[in-house]
Amino acid sequence: MTPDLPAPLAAWFSKRGWSPRRHQLDMLAEGRAGRHALLVAATGAGKTLSGFLPTLAELIEHPSDGLHTLYVSPLKALAVDIQRNLVTPVDEMGVDIRVETRTGDTPSDRKARQRVKPPQILLTTPESLSLLLSYPDSVTMFAGLKTIVIDEVHVFATGKRGDLLSLCMARLQAIAPAMRRVALSATVADPDGYRAWLAPDGDIDSVSLVLGETGVDPNIAILLPEDRVPWAGHSGRYAAAQVMAEIETHKTTIVFCNTRSLAELIFQDLWKENAMQLPIGIHHGSLEKEARRKVEAAMAGGRLRALVATASLDLGVDWGDVDCVIQMGAPKGSSRLLQRIGRSNHRLDEPSEAILVPGNRFEYLEARAALDAVEAGELDTDVFRMGALDVLAQHLMACACAAPFDQQAMLAEIRSALPYSALTDELFDKVLGFIRDGGYSLRAYDRFKRLTQDADGLWRVSHPKFVAQHRLNAGIIVEATMLKVRFRNGRALGKVEEAFASTLSHGDTFFFAGMSLEVEKIDTEDLIVRATARPARIPTYGGSRMPLSTNLADRVRGFLDTPAEWSRFPDDVREWLEIQARRSTLPHPDQLLVETFPREGRNYMVAYSFEGWNAHQSLGMLITRRMETAGLKPLGFVANDYALATYSIDPVTDPAALFSPDILEHEFVDWVQQSHLLKRAFREVAVIGGLVERQHPGKRKTGKQVTFSTDLIYDVLRKYEPGHILLEAAWADARARMTDVGRLADLLDRAAGTMLHVDLPRVSPLAVPVLVLIGRERVSTGSADDALLIEAEALAGEAMRLD
């Protein structure tokens, strides 16, 4: 039975010449039945309206004051965009429904008023929701809550922000037992996994799955250079003139880059080719909020012809005039590509248009793999994991700030969140003990005694100062320490990482916010600059590597093993593979090819493992340590997404011995403990867990101060309390996120039985893209790119000879 739309809603659809789509009516029916629901629908299918339709219908039919619906978004920009797109129909319908946003950018007076007199619909982020739940009046505010809508759920569910959000939902469900949970996504490979994550107590059957109508297939092309696909590089910068030509022939284009520093480079390259002086903008997360808002408004108003952007625009910002999306470099995953393609022609009945610009020959194969995966409807799988303990500690502190709690009742509530459903009594006791006194190594210090258990058994905050400290420091995203970039007149442009700023001196130049800037002064928190016409460097940002998905890696392996596919490739890519097959070999999909060869007094070993840069970086550190122990005199290693190359004085004659799985039991543990990795992971969990505060009232700690504090505590705990819960949490982070140890373990497990070792007299064609990186990894200037290409051509000439 089709549910009836209230008259104002029906009239609004009719006035626009629209009819509700089937999945929108299905979502309305689920809402009226009071059931939780997951909607998986293509971009442009009206997902957001589908999520809000039951709310609008109910508020029109049964007007009420107080908070009715929470909408949780992964991005501040998305919350602002949704407000704009939701307020318009509400105003056009003439109904009395207030819609407001609440993020870190919301003025404090409005935040205070929202807690006393909330709107009917509040748009927020997981972090802002968690802060709301830390106030005593949160029970009153959320008592009448009917629905929570989680947009782009795939962004949250498998990470720490998802852990926080699942805990917040458990708290809300306890406050408002009848609350309905709704999640929306365009790119979900495992809907049942997300249904279980969304459901109270993981009860998958309580969540209805609503599938949207399929849209028109996208038009995706791979842009090829006017001469040859490059041997090296990963940015596609060679194609700036061709990209500019595409911008000139389209109404509005978004040019996606995988990193913020590449976005700055591409923006400058496009300006140099912009003979028609078309308006072009840049958008990434390090720019000042005002700059981002200005660009977003210009895009919404149709005043820009192109926007160079990063993941800050991956998600559902809806600009209907965008008719082309260009991806610079390989997309790294089919789901990410689909998400980005969806920014073009944000409508279900019109094809999205996208162009991929591969940076090198391996990236051409990856781009072709991504295109095939999209055509086959194949998405990247997500891995659900146990909830993080540092996030749990932060949530418990938020709950205590709102009101004292009973330990057993709180444990039951927390276990109703799927990531924490297997939490043991013992582990819960350890987390509470950590918040109570920091652990036995730290309990002599009052500043770690944040919780107290009363005689009646209730846990409460030890002192009001800890409440203020929590609200000032709560949050899940621990970014690298940043310095504000500003002019002498105080105008702020955005932020760069402290590590990058520390390499600058007075008079140095760099590109930022689309401008060339000269350093005038560096102080504790600010980088004072002035505009200049001098050539510049580019900011480098940590944590910006996107891993190659296993899905695309498998497809690229398949290409190497299937010569029948090669006819689809450009001549130079096909020739590269054909000569590799003649001079060495190409591995089967289940094989690990390892090549060894001498060159210019060094001995090289190249392993083609296709496990992504992160895993290869970790493996390179471990393999070279093992080579040192074996007396092979390693000189270094380089890695890309596809291969790992080591170079040494003495040759590797038995690579299998270097790749044995026990490397994860011995060398891995030693390396992680001795490197900065575990300290960096500990810094993050210490900040999230509330052990170390980033901010005090009226001032913010510098990154050096935070690092100094966490390093001191880390050294104490390593020595006196190695089983401390935050060290366990740091280990979990270092293993999973920073080293990609899961993929590493898979690679090592299959290495012994599948390794194919080929000893060659000289470099092979397949080795050129990774070998050319030696000595070039950290250089990001234009001249270095030119040198890279020259060296690649020389190396390629040697590799492609058939004699």
Automatic annotation (TrEMBL):
Identification of the protein by name: ATP-dependent DNA helicase RecQ
PANTHER family: ATP-DEPENDENT HELICASE LHR-RELATED-RELATED, LARGE ATP-DEPENDENT HELICASE-RELATED PROTEIN
Family to which this protein belongs: Belongs to the Lhr helicase family. Lhr-Core subfamily.
GO molecular function: ATP binding; ATP hydrolysis activity; DNA binding; DNA helicase activity
Ranges for domain Helicase ATP-binding: 28-198
GO biological process, one term: DNA repair
Annotated EC: 3.6.4.12
Pfam families named among the record's database cross-references: DEAD (PF00270), DEAD_assoc (PF08494), Helicase_C (PF00271), WHD_Lhr (PF19306)
Transmembrane recorded as keyword: no
InterPro entries referenced in this protein's UniProt entry, alphabetically: ATP-dep_Helicase, DEAD/DEAH_box_helicase_dom, DEXH_lig_assoc, Helicase_ATP-bd, Helicase_C-like, Lhr-like, Lhr-like_DEAD/DEAH_assoc, Lhr_WH_dom
Matching SMART domains: DEXDc, HELICc
Transmembrane regions listed in the UniProt entry: none
